[in-house]
């Protein structure tokens, strides 16, 4: 086994090309086995095994800087840079995370997880190198999917004329984003592949780059030869390599989209081991949208290269045909386009993760909200219960989005309320609306839910009590119910329980009414407290005698956390809150 | 005079081409005269007179949709669509704003002011049209400067393959952004101009578009002919027209950058009529940075196509040579590149307007703050005293930026404190730092200012009193001083006056100390209250007996406002606040 003897890239350099090919097989096997047991990014990594070997064979990391885009394809890089055990020893599987991480290794330059960042980061390093008079190679590795992102195109443009020295962009063309690609540049990439890089129009040359084409991105010998020819080059160049997503594992090659990222599966059959069969909001929303779209052809469901946001796999996308739009990794375009659709009588519904809405703050504010365009934004994974990698956590959308004027940000607490809000949002024509999908499980409403949300900022009193009022937002409503019960039990107080529903405004009438027979307000929200919902309530009561306790998450970048620990640390447990308030009751 | 007879575009269509040429002259004269008296965007509008006439001559607005990018070049469009009086009658000059505005006219599709939005907005309208079975032309007008923006490139990519029907992109190539262009695509545009659109690599074709080239974008006859040939076209096409920024006014043609946007000037000499000669933070920061850069070649000053952010006109840019980087209109790239520079030992300083930082929220959060890269962001025009168009107001950056973990957002209150914070930020290596430039004039420190800000969130007690504490942030510190005096005078109370300095955190020790002998806290901030600074103070004191009054701006999109009125409406006057607190003292 070669893989066991690789401690640093210098061990790799001792191998022959033939031995590197054997190593590639061993790495693929390790990747498949680990993914089958732990899950993770699979097909994307299988495609980059050979190229990553060639890159480390030719360049000298960490002197030369290798910057991965998204970095979900960096597993081979981790194996070759001292972290093989995290891939071959099951007990050590958890010692590596799924993205590049400078804390793990000096060979990892940045902590990244969002797309389209590598070229700009590389330009910055190249600029610093040039100012310092250095000579090291600066290498960005970016996939064809990422190239639709505005940040990548901005970086590509800048690098094409403003970096005078060495800049090597390895463009990994596997003809896939997570799903299929969308956009005009992909027609050009096809022409480039068909002509072995020789067609008349060349996107990269049009951006000002020198250019090389490598037909088979799995041919280590060819890759090594090409990379040796560009090592220490004195100007920016794009090396366009063609790879196969999922290479070396038939199930992955045949199911590129579903094996981009996987949960534990059976290697033989490719089947997921423990599929979740319960109720899920992504399914609920998707199915409701499809039904609704069939009745109203003005509705357009939009995603930005992440069909998983609503589990819109290919069979579902086909069902709605031209009413489904995947803009590619292009969130800014998505929101601006939604504004255009809404302006011209369409009903856009754009769904993506909380963390990816961060990529389009300005368009939400300017195109959507200044223009008051009636578009619906479905915000998923917006919760402490959601993705736990630091680059993907979903606890910042409330401060980011809810302080933009004109936006109506809704926080449903159960299935029926969610659907009612979604229906209202799609059918109204007055406001940009965002809806925050709960992540604490799917609960059913205990009574009728309202269907009209046009009277903005009207909170719902779920149970009327006194002394203490609990304002429990979105998927922390169930925590509010639990807390209410606990308070009843411990202090014999019937507290008032409120479902505020609107994140973007205060029900001042209700809040004022509460002053009469309440002395303590408790707010609960599933996101960072700073700039969030509860602090607005605290500010409202600032001039009053009312005591206010805001519960939510501390402003910090959580990473690969234990949810229970985080909840406890932030006092987000009915027991702890009940104890906290003992001096106020 | 033809201009006087144009009430709608149909009046224009009655003219001969020859008469259109005369009209163009009249329009240019009106633009120059109005700009000389009122200021506004000048050179950019002069370049688009003929093309705008041709567009309205050929297409049928408002059935056909004309979407301007940035829309600072829409003055001729306004003249041709019923708003000529706002350009020829001095008393009516104020009846139009400087950007497209649907409130003014059905011919204005969107309220925009930021760059790079037009293609995506047009894609949305084209999509809605196609779903509805419509046939109208959808036209985006975008300049070469805007094309460096990621959103424009995302839109260009999408439109190049995903819009099946009519989409006409009129690409106005005047070889300028506000200043010169930066990026590889501008080399390609030069080749296209030199070969009359026939060179081997064609950026637009590489993005999937049909393409036409018009050599002289001031030749109305040629433009009309070309546009007639693309009218009702059944697929996306780019019409590349070459224009001269400032066309028809020699002073503008010779000074394209300084006449992009002007203050009132003398037409004969081109000289500004009432130049401001007082102290200005843009000059102070620029001069300090230049001095500092000369001593430390690791410092890189970066802008994103807006040299005016720091008044970095050409003579100053030349002084610092390769230590100055203009990334073009590419804020996402700017922040990611800054992270790259910082990671590799450089000291990046990126300056732009508050409103443009909105375009790079995700990069600030991910590339900069997750990675804790020591970069400096200079946030200008972040104030109610700043630009007053709804698309450019600078009152949202506190909620947007200050709730991102790891960021240190500083609010200096005077010149010496600003310089000390800037020096500290550039020389430290621990934190991403943003500094909010005051806009209420340049004040001098009344005593020594601290030079070390590494003890985060340490507020400065400027005068110690009791009963009432005023926490006055940034450029509202002077309002705090005034209020303190007023309280002394009216209530004979020596209040405590605090300069918090840090927007991003609480000085909990100090805030706790205040409980002893204070009963009222007043916070003042120059930005929207929601999600901002004061609400964090209110939340901190929520469980206490302390009363808290937060003063700042209401969450709303202000537009072309009277500052005094806005200040009064929001109670941001010492008199009004002193009256407000009468029941608390």
UniProtKB/TrEMBL annotation, chains A, B:
Cofactor(s) demanded: Mg(2+)
Keyword Transferase attached: yes
Residues of the Transketolase-like pyrimidine-binding domain: 279-445
GO biological process, one term: isopentenyl diphosphate biosynthetic process, methylerythritol 4-phosphate pathway
EC class: transferase
Cross-referenced InterPro entries: Dxylulose-5-P_synthase, THDP-binding, Transketo_C/PFOR_II, Transketolase-like_Pyr-bd, Transketolase_C
Domain of life per record: Bacteria
GO MF terms, alphabetically ordered: 1-deoxy-D-xylulose-5-phosphate synthase activity; metal ion binding
GO cellular component assignments: cytosol
Keywords: Isoprene biosynthesis, Magnesium, Metal-binding, Thiamine biosynthesis, Thiamine pyrophosphate, Transferase
Pathway given in the UniProt record: Metabolic intermediate biosynthesis; 1-deoxy-D-xylulose 5-phosphate biosynthesis; 1-deoxy-D-xylulose 5-phosphate from D-glyceraldehyde 3-phosphate and pyruvate: step 1/1
EC number: 2.2.1.7
This protein's record includes keyword Metal-binding: yes
PANTHER family membership: 1-D-DEOXYXYLULOSE 5-PHOSPHATE SYNTHASE-RELATED (PTHR43322), 1-DEOXY-D-XYLULOSE-5-PHOSPHATE SYNTHASE (PTHR43322:SF1)
Subunit structure: Homodimer.
NCBIfam families listed in its UniProt record: PRK05444.2-2 (NF003933), PRK12315.1 (NF008968)
Family: Belongs to the transketolase family. DXPS subfamily.
Entry protein name: 1-deoxy-D-xylulose-5-phosphate synthase
């Amino acid at each position: 086994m070669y893989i066991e003897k690789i401690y640093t890239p210098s061990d790799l350099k001792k191998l022959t090309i033939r031995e590197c090919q054997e190593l590639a097989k061993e790495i693929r096997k390790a990747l498949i086995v680990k993914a089958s047991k732990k899950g993770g990014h699979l097909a994307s990594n299988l495609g980059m095994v050979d190229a990553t070997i060639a890159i480390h064979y030719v360049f000298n990391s960490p002197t030369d800087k290798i910057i991965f885009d998204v970095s979900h394809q960096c597993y081979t890089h981790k194996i070759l840079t001292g972290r093989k055990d995290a891939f071959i020893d099951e007990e050590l599987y958890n010692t590596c995370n799924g993205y590049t991480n400078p804390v793990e290794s000096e060979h990892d330059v940045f902590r990244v997880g969002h797309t389209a960042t590598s070229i700009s980061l590389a330009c910055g390093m190249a600029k610093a190198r040039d100012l310092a008079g250095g000579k090291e190679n600066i290498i960005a590795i970016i996939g064809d999917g990422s190239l639709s992102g505005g940040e990548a195109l901005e970086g590509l443009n800048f690098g094409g004329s403003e970096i005078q020295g060495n800049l090597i962009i390895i463009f990994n063309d596997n003809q896939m984003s997570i799903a299929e690609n969308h956009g005009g540049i992909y027609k050009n990439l096809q022409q480039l592949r068909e002509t072995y890089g020789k067609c008349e129009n060349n996107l990269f040359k049009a951006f000002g780059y020198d250019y090389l084409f490598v037909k088979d991105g799995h041919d280590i010998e060819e890759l090594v030869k090409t990379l040796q020819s560009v090592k220490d080059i004195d100007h920016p160049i794009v090396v366009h390599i063609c790879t196969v997503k999922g290479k070396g594992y038939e199930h992955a090659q045949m199911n590129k989209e579903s094996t981009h990222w996987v949960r534990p599966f059976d290697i033989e059959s490719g089947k997921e081991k423990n599929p979740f069969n319960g109720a899920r909001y992504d399914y609920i929303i998707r199915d409701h949208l499809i039904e609704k779209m069939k009745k109203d052809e003005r509705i357009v469901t939009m995603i930005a290269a992440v069909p998983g946001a609503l589990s819109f796999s290919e069979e579902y996308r086909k069902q709605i045909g031209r009413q489904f739009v995947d803009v590619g990794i292009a969130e800014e375009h998505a929101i601006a386009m939604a504004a255009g659709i809404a302006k011209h009588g369409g009903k856009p519904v754009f769904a993506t993760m909380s963390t990816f809405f961060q990529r389009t703050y300005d368009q939400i504010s300017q195109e959507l909200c200044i223009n008051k365009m009636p578009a619906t934004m479905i915000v998923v994974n917006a919760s402490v219960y959601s993705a736990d990698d630091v680059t993907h956590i979903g606890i910042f959308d409330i401060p980011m989005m809810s302080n933009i004027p004109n936006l109506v940000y809704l926080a449903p607490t159960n299935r029926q309320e969610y659907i009612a809000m979604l229906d209202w949002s799609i059918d109204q024509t007055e406001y940009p609306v965002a809806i925050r999908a709960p992540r604490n499980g799917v609960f059913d409403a205990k009574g009728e839910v309202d269907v009209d949300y046009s009277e903005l900022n009207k909170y719902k009193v779920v149970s009327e009590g006194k002394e203490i009022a609990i304002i429990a937002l979105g998927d922390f409503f169930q925590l509010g119910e639990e807390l209410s019960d606990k308070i009843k039990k411990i202090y014999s107080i019937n507290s008032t329980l409120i479902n505020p529903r609107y994140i973007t405004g205060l029900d001042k009438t209700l809040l004022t009414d509460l002053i009469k027979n309440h002395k303590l307000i408790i707010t609960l929200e599933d996101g960072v407290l700073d700039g969030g919902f509860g602090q607005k309530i605290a500010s409202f009561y600032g001039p009053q005698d009312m005591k206010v306790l805001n519960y939510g998450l501390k402003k910090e970048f959580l990473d690969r956390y234990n949810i229970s620990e985080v909840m406890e640390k932030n006092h987000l447990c009915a027991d702890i809150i009940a104890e906290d308030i003992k001096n106020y009751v």
